[in-house]
Amino acid sequence: MSLADKVRAALAGADAVEPLEGDDYQAAGEHVPASVLIAITDRPEPGVILTLRQATLRRHAGQIAFPGGRIDPEDDNPVAAALREAWEEVGLLSADVEVVGTMPSYRTGSGYHIVPVIGVVPPDLPLTPHEVEVAAVFEVPLAFLIDSANHVLSSRVFDGRERHFHVIEWQERRIWGITAALIVNLSRRLQGLVTA
Questions:
Q1: Which of 44, 45, 146, 153 has the smallest number of CB atoms closer than 10 Å to its CB?
Q2: In this predicted model, what pLDDT tens digit does every residue of 31-42 receive, in sequence order?
């Protein structure tokens, strides 16, 4: 069975564990539709492609993220938006992505309603970070990311209110907030995949 088939089967059969639905703080008003691409590399020990956002960006500067963003009017659906954003941010061709499914949407405290799109990509693609948006593109082992022992629940006071969020430390990288929450949800969907 291919990696794509294994991930597809895990996504289809993972209803037992409830996903995180959103941040513990919700922005007022309507949430903006968005999507991200969780690209899993097809290698003996699969990885997940992540980006480090430029420190000069207005929102989420210097944070680790999946390629993604708002769903634009010309996007047919969340999958199309995630593939477009991955092309714009890291030069990942949509033809190189085998989309295997989506996960339940996630509402953010910053006002987004994100649909995670899961895709499998060939290993070692020549990805090029968008110089204005992305400082670096890197890969983290899937087994590390979906190991719940690496998911730490943390908190801090922000705007006078205690906020709770997950943190995943990998090498010198601190993955937290929305990206970590989406990884926690991925972990809940893919448990057993790496050991299968």
A1: 44
A2: 899 999 999 999
